[in-house]
Amino acid sequence: MLGSSNQEISATALIGRLTLTLFIFIISTFVRADTIKIGVRAHIGIEKSTLQWKKTIEYLSKKIPEHKFEFIPVVSLKKLLEQAVNNKFDFVITNPSSFVEMEVSAGATALLTLRNKRQGNPYNKFGAVIFTRKENTSIYSIHDLEDKTIVAVSEPAFGGWRVAQREMLLEGFPPYQKAKKIIFSGGIQQNVVEIVQLGNAEVGVVRTDMLERMASSGDIDLNDFRIINEKKTENFPFYHSTKLYPEWAFVKMQNTSSEISKKVTLALLTMPANAPAAIVGKYVGWGVSEDYQPVHNLMKELKIGGYQNYYKNPFEYFFSKYLIQIIVTIIILVCLFFSVLYVLTTNRRLVSARKLQNKLMGELEERVIERTDELLKAKEVAEKSNNAKTEFLSRMSHELRTPMNAVLGFAQLLQQDVEQRQLTEVKENVEEILISGRHMLDLVNDILDFSRIEDGKFSLELTPVLAEKLINKVIHLLKSQAEEKEITIHCEFDEKDEIEILVDLRSTKQVLINLMLNAIKYNHIGGNIIIEISEVKNSYCKISITDNGDGIEESALAEIFDPFERMTKRTTVEGSGVGLAISKSLVEAMGGEIQVESIVGTGSTFSLLFKLVH
Ligand code: ADP
User: Fold this and answer.
1) Is the pLDDT of residue 35 over 50?
2) What's the order of all strands across the beta sheet hosting 528-536?
3) Sorting pLDDT into bands at 50, 70 and 90, what band is 17?
4) Which of 209, 234, 356, 574 has CA 20 to 30 A from 340's CA?
5) How many contiguous H segments (helices) and E segments (strands) does the chain have?
6) 140 pLDDT higher than 80
7) pLDDT for 281 beyond 90
8) What is the largest CA-CA distance in the chain?
9) Side-chain half-sphere exposure of 99, counting CA atoms within 13 A
10) Which of 236, 242, 278, 281 is nearest to 158 (CA)?
11) Distance from Cα 578 to the centre of ligand 1, integer Å
12) Which residues, judged by CB distance below 6 Å to any ligand atom, belong to the binding site of ligand 1?
C-alpha cells in the first residue's frame, strides 16, 4: 500500500515538472519571437544615437505590432561585430565597412541602404574629403602630403579615414610610410576640422558633407580651406576627394527569419520622407540595398575586416608568406651558381695546366732520353779512354820496371867496383844514379798501384785489427826517417785500450805509412807529429795525424786527393803525387773516410774514419 502511494506521488511530481518546463519553453519562445533586437553603430555617442534612431524603432514597433523592437546602441565597431557574431542582434544599422566585416565573418546580408538627408536631399553614397587650410601653400595634391601631419577621427572610421587611406594608396602614396604623423582625434568628426583650423595638423580627413554642414551652421568658412584631390560626381554636390561608396546599411543577421525580415524591409521601404523617424534620424528614408562590392574591394586592398590574409593573386600570397625563404633560396642559388662557376673555371684552368704539364713532360722525357743517350755515349767514351789510360799506365809501368831494375842492378855492381878500386872521383855520380833510379822505381810502383786500384784489380779482406798496435808498427817502420829530421812522434792513445777496427790490414798499413811519411816529409827539422785515436758517432773510430809542418793552401785542399797533384814548394822532397789519391781510394773501398784540415805555416791534420768492431 505504502509503495503504491509513493509511486503516485512521484508520478504527480514528474507531470508537474514537465508542465513547468513546457510552459517556460513556450514563454521563452514567445518572448524571443516577440523581441527584435536592433544593434546600431553609435559613432556619435550613445545619447545622440539613441535620439537619432529612437523614432525609427518606434516606427517599426508601430508598423509591426506583433513584435517588440529593442534598440541596442554600441559605440565600438569591434564590440558591435563581436555581438553580431554571437547572435546578439536580429538586425544591425551600421556603416558599410562594418557591414562587410559582418558579411564576411557572420554571414550578414544588407537589406537596405540609407538614403541620407543632406541639404534637404537624399543621398545614398558618400566618401571622404581631404583638406588643408587655404593659407598652406605647400599642399595641393596627395603627393604633397609627404612629411605632413594628417588628422582623422579614428582608424576604423569608414568615411572618416579608410576611404581616404585607399584613395591615397591608389595615388601611389602609402600614408603610414610617407606622412610625418597620422593623428586619430577620437570623438566626433567636427574635432578633426577644428584641429586643422588651429594648425595642429596640416591635413584633415572627414566624411563628405561634414565641411558643408559645419559651414551652414556657421562653425567654419569654407573659403578658409582647400580640398585636396578634389573630384566631381554627377548629382553629388558635396566636396569629395575620393570615390563614393554606398551609405550605411540595414543589415539582417544570418539567423533572422525571412518573415520578420520581409516585414521590416517593407516597413522601412515605405517610410515617408516626412515621417518623424526620418526627420529625427536626419534621413529621407531607406532604399533597396546598394552594391557593397566596392567596399569589399577597399577592404581587400587595405587588408582589413576579415581580409587581413587576402592576396590579389597566388604570387602575392606566395611572396608575402615565403619572402624570407625565397630570399634565402635566392642567396643559396646565387652562392651555388658562383661556386659552380668557380669550380668550372678552376677545372678548366686545371685541364689546360695539365695539358701544358703533359706537353712539358713529353718534351722533358724526350730531352732526358736524348741526354741519357749522350751521357751513355760519353760514359762509354770515358770508360774506353779510362781503360786505355789504365792499360797504358800498367803496361808502361811494367815495361819500365824491368829496365829500371836492370839499371839499379848494374849501378850497384858499379858502386861495388868503384869502392874496391877506390875511384873516389866517380863515387858520387854512381850514388846519384842509384838514388835517382830508386826514386824512379818508386814512382813506377806507385803508378802501378794506383792503376790497379782504379781498375778494381785488387782484393780487400776486412778483418778486425787493433788500431793502436797497427799505428805503433807503422811508427816503428818510419822511425829512422823521423829521427833523420829530428821529428818527435807523440802518441795520444793507450795501447791497452784495444780499439778494434774492421779493415784490410795491408791497405790500412799503406795508408798510415803514406800519411805519416807526408807528415815527416812536409815538416821542418825538429817538428812534431801527434797521433790520436778516438771513438766517434755511429760506431766509428777516428785516427788523426797532426803535424806542425808547412800546411796546405785552402784553395789546394780540394785537389790534393787527385792523382799527380803536388802542392809543395819544396823541390827537393821526393814524391809522385799519387800517395793521397791511393789512400783515399783504399779508405773508401773499406767503407771509411779520409778528411783534411790545414793552415799554411801552422800544420795539417789528416783524419781516417773506420768502422769499429763490436
Ligand atoms: P807526394 O808524393 O807528393 O807526397 P801525395 O799524394 O802524398 O804525394 O801528396 C800530395 C801533395 O799534398 C803533396 O805533394 C803535398 O804538396 C801535399 N801534402 C800531403 N801531405 C802533406 C802534409 N802533411 N803537409 C803538407 N803538405 C802535404
Assistant:
1) yes
2) 488-492, 528-536, 540-547, 603-611, 593-599
3) low
4) 356
5) 17, 21
6) yes
7) yes
8) 197
9) 29
10) 242
11) 9
12) 514, 518-519, 522, 547, 549-550, 552, 560, 565-568, 575-581, 604
